[in-house]
Amino acid sequence: MFDIGATELLVLVIVAVLVIGPKDMPLALRTAGRWIGKVRRVSSHFRTGLDAMVREAEMEETEKKWRDRNAQVMADHPETEMTPLPAADGATIHNDESGENDSEARDERAAKDADCELPASTSRTGD
């Protein structure tokens, strides 16, 4: 930061000892250390704030690019419709209007395909 050489530092120490005196030197150094610490904290806080503002601006710019690109892709392919994915058993999963899976109808179709009936109850009776 500051380009202070050994001879310049020695001159500063000699002037400080002559002006402040050896008795008050520890107190002066502590005070100087506190001020330097405060300046470092403030500059660090300022730098962190600037970095956050730059990151937010970059994120907004990236999101705008993604929105523009998505709009372009959707405009280029308007006829492409999303189709439901097939289930693991090969049947297609259709969602009802509430957005929930129609699992009972799927289970009934699977039972018909397997030529069997769904059990009405699974309770066991004692023999």
Structure description:
The protein has helices at 6-20, 25-76, 103-113. It contains three helices and no strands. The chain is elongated and about 100 Å long. It is an all-alpha fold. The chain folds into two domains: 24-81; 82-115, no CATH class.
Layout of helices and strands:
Blueprint: H1 6-20, H2 25-76, H3 103-113
Average pLDDT for all residues: 78
Give the strand tally.
0
State the helix count.
Answer: 3
- Tell me the Rg in angstroms: 38 Å
The description of the largest β-sheet is: none
Please indicate the percent range of residues in DSSP E strands (runs of 2 or more): under 5%
Low-pLDDT ranges: none
Q: What's the overall geometry?
A: elongated
SSE order:
HHH
Provide the domain count.
Answer: 2
Portion of residues within helices:
55-70%
> Between the first and last Cα atoms, what is the distance in angstroms?
92 Å
Structural class: mainly alpha
